Amino acid sequence: MEKNQSDKQLNSITLLNQMASDPYYLFHFLAFFSYIPVRCSASHVLSPPFSSYLLHREIQAVIAFSLLTAIKMVRKETWEAFIADTLFFAKIFLFGIALVVDYHLALWYSLVFLVVYTLTQQPPYQGIGATLQLTPLQLEALLTDGNTSRFWLVEYRELSSSTCVQTSRVFPELSITYSNKNLSFGVVDLGLFPNTAEKFGISLGSSDKLPKYILFENGVEITRFPEMDFEAKTSTFTITKKLLCQHFELDRHLLDYINSK
Q1: Residue/partner pairs of 48-53 with CB below 8 Å, 24 or more apart
Q2: Comparing C-alpha atoms, which of 219, 102, 77, 66 is closest to residue 154?
Q3: What are the residue ranges of helices labelled H in 22-135?
Q4: Model pTM?
């Protein structure tokens, strides 16, 4: 219990350090913070009725933003997804308030956020859990080697995809719970090895195709997620630990390993 609490505190500290040092978070913070001096300067030239009107709009924006943030905090499974949505909503509300002040200010913030989007990218989860970062050759060698794990669950991702970034902690956290001598977890970055995608029947034409998860037994693919029919029936879905556990029956694999000991 104490170990879990210390791990959570360490993860929180790591996340805070990353948010303070990473350009993606730093530039967003500077952009949002810049509204304070702009607002203070504008208050001297705005008429009292308009200042009162603007204050009411700011209070409404803060309340609406707080409610959306609370809802997203409950519904989102990863911090990366929660932060991405929170920043998105903050941009919308800041643009709306800036538009009330002056449309030139709104255009300026639009330009700033466009530059930030162009120059920076949200960093993925840094922990690796019990996963192995593999090259295609290493994966092929492990799958064909009879002395390695019977089952290999492999995540194919591309960290230039926002979806892959926002779900980047799901797989490592799963590996901590379910990794054993019979089931191993590996990650292949298709951003570094794009030619590998075609070999495993993965399309890189659209970012919503990734991440892709494939379960191998003795080097042979037995199932993958999402499957083609699942993608056709479900236009939008969120990858969660529960969803992956159910699809790959990870609890059963863990029980089989425990019973075989």
Answers
A1: 53/100
A2: 219
A3: 23-33, 35-43, 48-75, 79-101, 103-119
A4: 0.82
